[in-house]
Design goal:
By secondary structure, this protein is an alpha+beta fold. The protein has ten helices and five strands. Strands 1-2-3-5-4 form a five-stranded mixed β-sheet, covered by helices on one side. Helix 6 runs parallel beside helix 7 and helix 7 (221-242) runs antiparallel to helix 8.
């Protein structure tokens, strides 16, 4: 029953009863006797209480809708108020849920285009770092090698230090380029890319244990890229902010998809609000209809869980968000192996 008919029926019933009593043998004295005043007061109280109950029941779904609207987050899929209550309230809640679904789909499409452009820009920057800066530093190493053979003995140590600084800068450029463009993901697949990522973040003070199941379902390139980027961001947050000495990276199959887990034993989330890194992970999760959960780990630390549905099983019953297709790998005029072998021939590498 709608809220209008609930209130109207209650008021009508009260008025009908009052009219029947007035038309009947019941009379009110002048002045009003105490007993008659109590009866009238009791009837008025019952009518007001009935109205209050009806209004409370009818408006509770609207209060619940107001709280949901105040805390709505388009990056969290599935968070919708329950459609319940009188007809007007139920229709309003259903309309609000439909609007959220449409806004979430539009946001996912826009985020897909933005992240696709971002991946292309990452590839362009990685290519320029490798082809321009990397090969310039390689040429500098060759020049320093030739200079080192001719400088006086008292200057050889300084030239050697310059060689080491240039070599360290070249290695750092290559590491940055690899992180910008996950070539191992395109060439060897997701499992090898995650193992390489765990090895990359294993350094002094932090040990990353990885476990990637071999019987994973076939995933599309956009889903693999989302999994890789979420794992990369999770380990980056662990290395920079968690003060952890141990982390875990695992990928296992589920009946309806796969689950990525990144867990550490660090200081945990605390009361800090979500930063740009976590928001970026949520944006990526929406692209494949995945569910992302960032919460305290059992005991201490933080865990990131990403559940990616199997192919052709997008959000809202099969809807598939726009894919983020990695840009094609750039063709390098001089590849990593050429630069490395050049440095080896000149004795720049131990």
């Amino acid at each position: 029953m709608s809220l209008f008919w609930r209130i109207f029926s209650l008021n009508a019933a009260g008025l009908v009863v009052a009219t029947a009593l007035l038309l009947g043998p019941v009379t009110v004295s002048t002045p009003v006797l105490p007993g008659e005043a109590l009866i009238l007061l009791a009837g008025l109280t019952a009518l007001l209480a009935g109205n209050a109950v009806v209004l409370r029941i009818g408006l509770t779904p609207l209060h619940r809708l107001g709280r949901a609207m105040a805390t709505a987050d388009l990056l969290v899929s599935g968070a919708r108020p329950t459609v319940a209550g009188p007809a007007e309230a139920a229709e309003l809640i259903a309309t609000y849920n439909t609007m959220l679904d449409r806004l979430q789909a539009e946001r996912a499409a826009g985020a897909g285009r933005a992240l696709q452009a971002q991946e292309r820009e990452r590839h362009r920057i990685a290519r320029e770092l490798h082809d321009e800066v990397g090969q310039t530093l390689t040429a500098v190493l060759l020049q320093l090698k030739r200079v080192a053979d001719r400088v006086p003995g008292e200057l050889r140590e300084e030239v050697s230090l310059a060689q080491e600084a240039t070599r360290a800068g070249l290695d750092e450029i290559r590491r940055i380029a690899r992180r910008l463009r996950p070539g191992v993901l395109e060439e060897l697949g997701l499992a090898s890319a995650l193992r390489s990522l765990a090895a990359e973040f294993t350094h002094h003070g932090l040990t990353v244990h990885h476990h990637v199941h071999g019987d994973l379902p076939r995933l599309g390139p956009e889903a693999e890229l989302v999994i890789y980027r979420v794992a990369q961001e999770g380990l980056t947050n662990t290395a920079r902010h968690a003060s952890a000495d141990r982390a875990e990276l695992s990928l296992r199959p589920l009946p309806d998809g796969v689950e990525l887990l990144v867990r550490d034993n660090g200081t945990g989330l605390g009361a800090a609000p979500e930063g740009a890194g976590i928001r970026g992970m949520r944006e990526r999760a929406l692209l494949t209809g995945a569910e992302l959960r960032v919460a305290p780990a059992p005991g201490r630390g933080t865990e990131v869980r990403l559940r990616v549905p199997a192919p052709n099983r997008g959000p809202h019953g099969g809807h598939q968000s726009p894919p983020v297709t990695p840009a094609p790998a750039p063709a390098h005029p001089v590849g990593d192996r050429t630069a490395d072998s050049t440095a080896d021939r000149t004795g720049d590498r131990p």
